[in-house]
Amino acid sequence: MKNLIFTLLITCFCSNLKSQSPKHEQPNFIIIFTDDMGYGDLGVYGHPTIKTPNLDQMAFEGQKWTNFYVGASVCTPSRAAILTGRLPIRSGMTSKKQRVLFPDSKNGLPASEITLAEQLKGVGYKTAAIGKWHLGHKKQYLPTNNGFDYYFGIPYSNDMDLLQGDEFKNYWNRSYDSIEPAHFNVPLIRNTAIIERPANQHTIIKRYSEETINYIKKNKDSPFFVYLAHNLPHVPLFVSKEFEGKSKRGLYGDVIEEIDYGVGEIIKTLKEEGLAENTIVVFTSDNGPWLPFKLNGGSAGLLRAGKGSTWEGGMREPAIFWAPGRIKPAVITEIGSTMDLFSTFSNLAGAKLPHDRILDSHDLGPVLFQQKESTRNSIIYYRGNEIYAVRLGDFKAHYITQGVYGQFGKREEHNPPILYNLSHDPGEQFNINNQHPDILKEINNLVEAHKSKLVVGKDQLAERE
Ligand code: MG
Question: Which CATH number is 380-452's, of 3.30.1120.10, 3.40.50.2000, 1.10.3810.10, 3.80.10.10?
Fold first, then answer.
């Protein structure tokens, strides 16, 4: 009898363990990528009134990176960078003529590029893109043709397909105070079919979060990769009824708080499904805040300028890595980039890195799991096809500076370059180029070495219909 009870207990214990632990060894990956959120817009990054308890908790349980960069300061090239692990100049996803893709653009991410989704799909992952795409809206460029099994989202920015009204004639003086989703005729797509137009943007944050949760539940028995790219807080700002007027920071704060709530629900789902220990969640944004839109734009905190510029506010972003039991909790001051996720996740999944092209991607594994130094010690800040600035270690040299958009400050070339020590002076206020000719020389050598191997991809942004 005793033996029977013991056997039953062991059987129960083992079957319980089985239902709790994943059936596969490869970790799941979730990237949550917001649009135009600034370095200073989260509670855990110092915002005094926007409340982000779920992201704060993720940072507490995981790693908060304070020197984490995107591959470009505007949407399309930044998205090409995170998904290919390459500077967008290599894929042709930057242009001298314009900065992003539009609803009448002819092209998109070239088929020759290898996306992170293609890497992971090749080693057995289920893959979903939920949210903003902005790498080509025609069928051949959509996520389902770029390594994702599933797509649900708006294929470009939420302010596109504008139905003209007098209040929108002057772009920079647009009033966003009395707008409706109906003013922006953006499509909502499932896989390749338009299912709603104009998309009801009031419920879009909520629906993206719910789609992610459903995908996790449906695909938990195999390794999965979800790329959740929120269309917000890019203007125009919209929230669901439950979050309207909820924050102390006005509509922009309501948007961030609704995104934070969705993150909390996703984390809760991972815990309930027994996936928390085998899933790596990263939260970051595609570029800095869109400052010309004043109260409708976010904040880069102590960093200078915002979206569109190669000042820190344009390209340094909050980045939170969460995987309880795997990632060592810490505040990380090492340098990282969205492009590094390509190598980091490929290596963890057992996907071989391509050797027929130059990658701009470092494996962040040693920092994430052992708190070692990052192998990345430089950032190249492109604006379109030109290098505007370079960071090497603590120092950043600006070869060219320019205001956020054409109307907000003219282009200036600097010879010798302006130099800042970002560890001492993250706000880029105090030029110290006359004290460090040696460092300027080192940075120049880095630029020359980069240029000597650079093959510029064919411009995919210029052609419009
Ligand atoms: Mg953006």
Answer: 3.30.1120.10
